[in-house]
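Table S4 entry, ABC transporter ATP-binding protein.
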Amino acid sequence: MTDDGNATQPGDAAAAATAQPVLELDGLTSGYNGAAVLRDISLSVRPGEVVALLGANGAGKTSTLMTISGIVKPMRGRVLFNSADLKGTSPDARARLGVAHVPEGRGVFFGLTVAEHFRLASRGETLDAAAAYRYFPALEQLSGRRAGLLSGGEQQMLALGRALARRPKLLMIDELSLGLAPIIVERLLPVVRDYAKDSGCGVLLVEQHVELALTVADRGFVLSHGEITTHGDVAALKANPELVLSSYLGEQAVQDGNGK
């Protein structure tokens, strides 16, 4: 496995470091039409931990989440959920096991009200709207409004709230900041951190904006051209921003006395 480092939340580090991961990617290679987009990816997410998956557009971040969700099938390697191999498990079955995926673009239904989103559930599933309203009180005030009339930040709150209402064991969020003003993102990200800490849910956060993601993450992995190039706990990543930047861009920083 290629992950290291401990969670940075006071009092939680020892427990997180020894907890059985809720998610493990073991040598994962996947892609489309026989062409690999991800190559030999290994990482883990522990209960109550926020792990940031960073990288530029086209790095393979969304493909990673889609493979975990079962939408894209692995070519090699394994996706383990609570130590069980998910090979052959459908996306719907993964969701019932406790895997929640907030996709890029939010995935809300413009013609439905906020309240109707929490009544729209898979067979045998009950969404806990109260949990969503507890973490996003503004949603309760907007319960009668159609999603298409919400602002971008409110739509993202609804998408996140609906995921929390599923009481997930693993929450995956794809580009929470997309199309939102930084001040809105700064309000939403701490809620993700709080939910992970309160519930013990593991969070895999895909994000282009490194600084914002590292404000709430415990550990980070940088994905470039389908490969993990840098990883570590947040303190280590923040202490070496040049390494993160060079990995993020898929470049090797070279400096010597000649300025090359």
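The chain has one domain: 19-248.
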